[in-house]
C-alpha cells in the first residue's frame, strides 16, 4: 500500500489528469509485482496461487468489461442522434436568475445521467454555466458547487457511468439492482441539495441569461432538436424498469439511437464519414464510426464542439485497461493474505450495522485520499469488505451503495485526487474554494450512515427483497 501511494503520488504529479491514460495502470502492475514478491519471498505463497487469484478476479469482471464497451457505443450514438442535445436544449429552457443555482444542478444532473460522465458534463456544459454564473455576479464557488453536485449525481446513478458499473461488478451486485438501491440515499441527498441551492438563489438578483440562450441556439442550429428523440431514453427507461439484462438494454438502446441518427441527423453522419453527399454508404460509415470511435463536429462554437464530441467504444479502453490492472493487484493482495490483514483492522469497529457502514465510508474516503484515484478506491473498498458483509449476512447491494456514497462523490473534493485536480483545472476554481458548496458530495456519505442507523430497506440474506 505504501509503495502504491508513493508511486501514484509521483505519477499524478507528473502526468496530472492524463495519469489514467497509462501511468496509473503501470503503477498497479508494479505494485502487483511488489505484492507478489513479498508474498513469495516472505509468506511462502506459490506463484500459481497468485496467478489463479488474478485470473479469477479478471473473470469476475468480464461482463462489466463488455458493458463498458456497450456504454461507449451508447454514449456516442445518443449524442450524434440528437438525444443528449435535445435533453440539454430543453433543460436549459428552465434557467432563471433566481433559480440559477438549482437549474445548474438539475441541468448537469440530466446531462451526466444521459452521458454517464461527470468529467464530460463539467468540461462542456459546466464551463458554459460557469460563464453565465460569472455574468450574473455569482460566487465562483457557489456555481462550481452546483455544477459538480449535479454532475456527480449522474455519475453515481447512471447505468452509463463506469464508476457505477465498477462498484456493482466489484461487489458482484447486478447493475440495475445497485442503481435502484442507491435511490434510497441518493434521492433524499439530491432533494436536500436542491433546497439549499434554491434558498441560496434568492440571495442573488440578476437577470442576464443571454449566454445560456446563445448556447441553446447554437445547439439547435447544429442538431435537429425534436421531442420525438425522447422516445429513446423513455424506451431505455422502460427496459430498465422491466429489469432486462444490462447488456441487452444497452445494446437495444444504442441500436435505437443509431436508427434515430439516420432519421434525424443524416447531415451529421455525412460530416463524420467525410463523405461528399448523403447516401447509404455515408450513413453506414457514419453510424459505425459513431459507435466505435471518436467523433468531432464543427459547430462554430468551441464549447459546443467539445460537448458534442464522442469517444465510442475505443474511448473506454483506458478504463478497461485500468480495471484489468486493478484486478491483478486485487488478486495478488487476496492470494497473499494482505487484504485480509487490512480488513481485520476495520473488523474491530464493525460490531453493528451502523458501525459497519460507517467503517466502509471511512475506509473509502481514506483510500480516496491515499490512492488519489476513485477507480482504485472503489475496487479496494469493494474487495476489502465483500467477505465481511457476506459473513454478517448483509446483501451485496448494501456494500455497493455504500462504496459509491463514500468514494465516487468524494473523489472530486480531494485536491490531489485525479478528479479534484481535473475539475479544479477545468472550472478554474481551486478545489478548496468549491468544496464547501458541493452539498450533494458532502451529504452523500452522511446520508449513507443515517440510512444505516435507521435500518431503512437494509435486510439480511434470508429476508432479502430485491425490489
TrEMBL record:
Keywords attached to this entry: Antiport, Cell membrane, Membrane, Transmembrane, Transmembrane helix, Transport
Major subcellular site: membrane
N-terminal signal peptide: none
Subcellular compartments: Cell membrane
Topology relative to the membrane: Multi-pass membrane protein
Entry similarity comment: Belongs to the NhaC Na(+)/H(+) (TC 2.A.35) antiporter family.
PANTHER family the record matches: MALATE-2H(+)/NA(+)-LACTATE ANTIPORTER, MALATE-2H(+)_NA(+)-LACTATE ANTIPORTER
Name under which the protein is recorded: Sodium:proton antiporter
Organism, as annotated: Parabacteroides faecalis
Amino acid at each position: 500500500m505504501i509503495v502504491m501511494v508513493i508511486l501514484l503520488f509521483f505519477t499524478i504529479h507528473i502526468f496530472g489528469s492524463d495519469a489514467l491514460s497509462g501511468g496509473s495502470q503501470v503503477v498497479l502492475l508494479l505494485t502487483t509485482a511488489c505484492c507478489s514478491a513479498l508474498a513469495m519471498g516472505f509468506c511462502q505463497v506459490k506463484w500459481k496461487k497468485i496467478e489463479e487469484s488474478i485470473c479469477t478476479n479478471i473473470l469476475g469482471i468480464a461482463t462489466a468489461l463488455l458493458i463498458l464497451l456497450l456504454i461507449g457505443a451508447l454514449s456516442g450514438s445518443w449524442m450524434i442522434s440528437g438525444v443528449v442535445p435535445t435533453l440539454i436544449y430543453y433543460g436549459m429552457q428552465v434557467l432563471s436568475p433566481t433559480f440559477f443555482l438549482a437549474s445548474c444542478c438539475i441541468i448537469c444532473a440530466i446531462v451526466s445521467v444521459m452521458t454517464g460522465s461527470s468529467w464530460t458534463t463539467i468540461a462542456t456544459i459546466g464551463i458554459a454555466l460557469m460563464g453565465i454564473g460569472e455574468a450574473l455576479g455569482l460566487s465562483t464557488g457557489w456555481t462550481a458547487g452546483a455544477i459538480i453536485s449535479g454532475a456527480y449525481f449522474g455519475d453515481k446513478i447512471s447505468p452509463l457511468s463506469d464508476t457505477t458499473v465498477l462498484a456493482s461488478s466489484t461487489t458482484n451486485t447486478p447493475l440495475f439492482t445497485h442503481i435502484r438501491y442507491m435511490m434510497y440515499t441518493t434521492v433524499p441527498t439530491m432533494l436536500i441539495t436542491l433546497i439549499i441551492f434554491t434558498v441560496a438563489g434568492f440571495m442573488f438578483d440578476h437577470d442576464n441569461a443571454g449566454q445560456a440562450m446563445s448556447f441553446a441556439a447554437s445547439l439547435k442550429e447544429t442538431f435537429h432538436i425534436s421531442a420525438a428523440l425522447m422516445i429513446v431514453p423513455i424506451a431505455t427507461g422502460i427496459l430498465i424498469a422491466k429489469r432486462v439484462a444490462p447488456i441487452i438494454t444497452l445494446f437495444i438502446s444504442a441500436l435505437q439511437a443509431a436508427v434515430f441518427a439516420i432519421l434525424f441527423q443524416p447531415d451529421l453522419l455525412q460530416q463524420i464519414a467525410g463523405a461528399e453527399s448523403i447516401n447509404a454508404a455515408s450513413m453506414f460509415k457514419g453510424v459505425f464510426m459513431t459507435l466505435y470511435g471518436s467523433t468531432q463536429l464543427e459547430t462554430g462554437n468551441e464549447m459546443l464542439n467539445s460537448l458534442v464530441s464522442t469517444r465510442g467504444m475505443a474511448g473506454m479502453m483506458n478504463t478497461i485497461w485500468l480495471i484489468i490492472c486493478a484486478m491483478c493487484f486485487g488478486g495478488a493482495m487476496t492470494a497473499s493474505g494482505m487484504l485480509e490483514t487490512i480488513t481485520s483492522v476495520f473488523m474491530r469497529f464493525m460490531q453493528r450495522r451502523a458501525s459497519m457502514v460507517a467503517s466502509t465510508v471511512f475506509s473509502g474516503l481514506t483510500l480516496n485520499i491515499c490512492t488519489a484515484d476513485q477507480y482504485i478506491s472503489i475496487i479496494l473498498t469493494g474487495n476489502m469488505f465483500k467477505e465481511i458483509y457476506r459473513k454478517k449476512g448483509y446483501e451485496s447491494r448494501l456494500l455497493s451503495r455504500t462504496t459509491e456514497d463514500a468514494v465516487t462523490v468524494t473523489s472530486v473534493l480531494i485536491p490531489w485526487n485525479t478528479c479534484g485536480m481535473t475539475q479544479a483545472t477545468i472550472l478554474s476554481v481551486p478545489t478548496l474554494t468549491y468544496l464547501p458548496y458541493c452539498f450533494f458530495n458532502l451529504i452523500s456519505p452522511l446520508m449513507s450512515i443515517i440510512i444505516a442507523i435507521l435500518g431503512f430497506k437494509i435486510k439480511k440474506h434470508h429476508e432479502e427483497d430485491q425490489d
